[in-house]
Amino acid sequence: MPPHDGADESSARAPLLPPPAPRRAAARLHPLPLIVAAAFVASFRLLFLAPDPSYYQSLLLSLGSNATAAAHLRALTLRPHIAGSEANALTAAYVLDALSSHSFPTHLTPYSVLLSYPERRSLSLSAPGSDTTHFALEQESYPGEPYAAEAVPTFLAYAASGSVAAEAVYANYGRAEDFAYLAARGVNVTGKVAVARYGKVYRGDIVRNARDAGAAAAVIYTDAKDYAAGKAFPDGPWMPPTGVQVGSTFKGVGDPTTPMWASSEGCQRLSIAEAMASDDMPGIPALPVSGMDGEAILQLIGGDVAPEDWQGGASAPAYRLGPGPAVLNLTYVGNETMATIQNVISVIEGKEEPDRYVILGNHRDAWTFGAVDPNSGTAALLELAQRLSELQKKGWRPRRTIILCNWDAEEYALIGSTEWVEENRATLTSRTVAYLNVDSAVAGPGFYASATPQLDELLKEASKQVQNPDNRTESLFDLWMASNTSPLIGRLGGGGSDYSAFVQHIGIPSADMSFGPGYAVYHSLYDNFIWMEKFGDPLFQRHVAAASIWGLVALRLSDEEILPFNYGYYAAELENGAMSINARVLGMPVSLSPLDNSIKKFRRAVLKMDSELKALHTWKIWAPWRNSPLKVRDINDRLMMTERAFTEREGLSGRPWYKHLIYGPSLHNDYGAEIYPGVDDAIQTAKKTNTSESWQAVQNEIHRIARVINQAALVLAGGLT
């Protein structure tokens, strides 16, 4: 039965005493009409004095400004601004000033962290009968970009310093299976320079896979087949022949000198030498090169012809496996140094529940100009902040606290967000409702989203309220549904952006949103304002739409009394993952019964929560005087904390920073998202070794995920065993 807040229902049915005679007195009113009248007055006040949350949602959507987004992006991308540089400190000051101008309490949070810069690089190619080619290792600039010379020379952050002169071996996309294929073909990689192309896995995994195969060094290039399929920039959106994708090769998360803890002032640290000796570092010299240079190398590699799916485009030469006769002479000397980074944190305090946080985050640092990655997201964040300021002027104040975060050093290893989460872990785990990430907000047409499953329905509903920026007769939802993306909503197991610490380390419900599936000039000199203005978003309508969906989801999470979570989607995801595991271990000495039983328990908890939510909504409509703030708080806490229960203190086997046992990165591709990553790791090992011990390890991982799902079911259902 629903609570009565101390009221005895029988008292409403008791007969009234007659008034004493002969005095005439005002009749006592029956309490039920009084209650109804009170409820009517309360409803009147809600309807006419305090605007419904939907009013502010509509107002937010009406306030978008293309010009504001464009102006912010132009200012942010004036100069290259790699983390730790003076130029990036200036962008931090710009964001700080922009957010402070709206009277939001805003501050900088600095950290001293280990960053990596190039000091000296060289690469030459020789082969019998050919002249030696000395590669310039430069990206050609063009008129109209006066600050191009300020860009850091092309490099791979945290690559080992050293010189190698050895035969080249072609390794396709540098995946573990590509090196396994070379071994099966009898191609010896030991002591050689592995030449691989970008496109399938994280560059750090490419270098690591090369190292594990015995290579002495690695070269990664941008193949025209994947990055130059049309007119090159500035005439088209594709990568120019000399364009180079730079980036990090560190496999860890956060500051390399403080693994598992925050880089706070005076904290314990590894030495730089100890950090660079970590297995998460690439451990061998490596360089990125352009498509033009990569093709020149491949033309001189001999040996057997590579398989068809290893070949380049129609105009490319035949790719061969090697080794040799091409010899690469590679030198890389890096400068690993402690540098100061700065997060910008801005707080809009909640009125009713200031101790509950809805956090929005985007990073600011870029390898070069960063018009797409990440400052399209920064521009959207600042444009959204202006709208929230306008809402405040109209009387809005969020129910829960909204925190706007602009991270630093994401490109190196998600450092700014990770250090902040590690430093504030206890507070964030007890108070955070959700984290909403936007990295590269706009790279082109089409809407893409990833999330933890309880946010799926919210994302779909919100997208129905936002206009398609490329067709005003449609909603964003219509655009999304027409994309035929499968799955429609991705998951956040990969390590590609700042949601990682929130989801994979402390278990916060999270989402990531963007326009455009990807772009060819990624991490190159040509990711600049001119590229965005000509090809990414000429009218800046997509920037406005990105801010709109981001802000609308934030408002619903911050303002609605009951959190708009639906764990039914989570139950379905757990079931689908179990079916996938079952197909992979069929016929093996592994039982999925513990996992199946835990998912059934979780499904029952979902049904119980759904029943409670329906009852609560019924009370709010027909019996508002029965509404209990404590009941609302209890339900919201269970909805919020269920995601935390999917984490385990020990973390993934061999990867203890990753605490979430449902979602995490693939062992061999940091960008790849896996459901049940620990089980996936164990199955891969068991299939290689096929020992009873390895299959027992698979069984152990199944028990581990069953335990966290049982914990999540208990949290969602409420109460104790």
UniProtKB/TrEMBL annotation:
One annotated GO molecular function: metallocarboxypeptidase activity
Record Gene3D superfamilies: 3.50.30.30, Transferrin receptor-like, dimerisation domain, Zn peptidases
Main subcellular localisation: membrane
GO cellular component: endomembrane system
Ranges for domain PA: 164-245
Chain ranges passing through the membrane: none
Cofactor(s) the protein requires to work: Zn(2+)
Subcellular location(s) per record: Endomembrane system
Catalytic activity: Release of an unsubstituted, C-terminal glutamyl residue, typically from Ac-Asp-Glu or folylpoly-gamma-glutamates
Family per similarity comment: Belongs to the peptidase M28 family. M28B subfamily.
Name of the protein this chain belongs to: glutamate carboxypeptidase II
Species of provenance: Digitaria exilis
